[in-house]
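Figure 2 data, in text form.
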Amino acid sequence: RTILGDAVTVGLLEVNPLATVRVSAPKHEHRVPTSQEVEALVAALPGTLGPMALVAACSGLRLSELAALEARDVRLEGGVTIVTVRCGKGGVRGESVVLEPGASVVVERAAAGGLLFPRAGGGAWNRQKVNDRWRAVCRRLDIRGVRFHDLRHFHASLLVDAGHREIDVAAQLRHRDNGRLVREVYAHPDNAAALRRIGGGA
């Protein structure tokens, strides 16, 4: 399809016969890491990647959003840390998320100014470098089937297990579907916790 599209661009073809063909990518089975695995990964990731992973687990922010976070994007409101996303998926910018108290490292980093999670040599991380280091640490810790993006699922699952409504979790993840994606894709609830809540022993 790409080659034929290039041929149309340079005038070799009038129309690309495959322009409307879409092949769906194979779905990744999300394995939400356990709290112990998240703690181990945060401790083992080099440089600013550990704090970045912690913030992903405590906010549901995407890798690209975390890499672009600057000090000016963090503010405290009534004792709650709010992060404004300036580099959102699909061009969505200026939306805010709540950061759980466990990620107070963001407030400390914000005090220094500039990028919150710069590379060792300065500048922003890119997806390939983060994923390369993530996979190496996962191999070293023998944690299988967990991607950096699964920290977003981890956060959504924690919120659902804490009893938050799917529509509220969707707002935190900046979805505009009234909680459908949370229900169908992002939340991997702990059944034992659900039964404890139902039994009144939350």
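Caption note: The chain has a mean pLDDT of 84.
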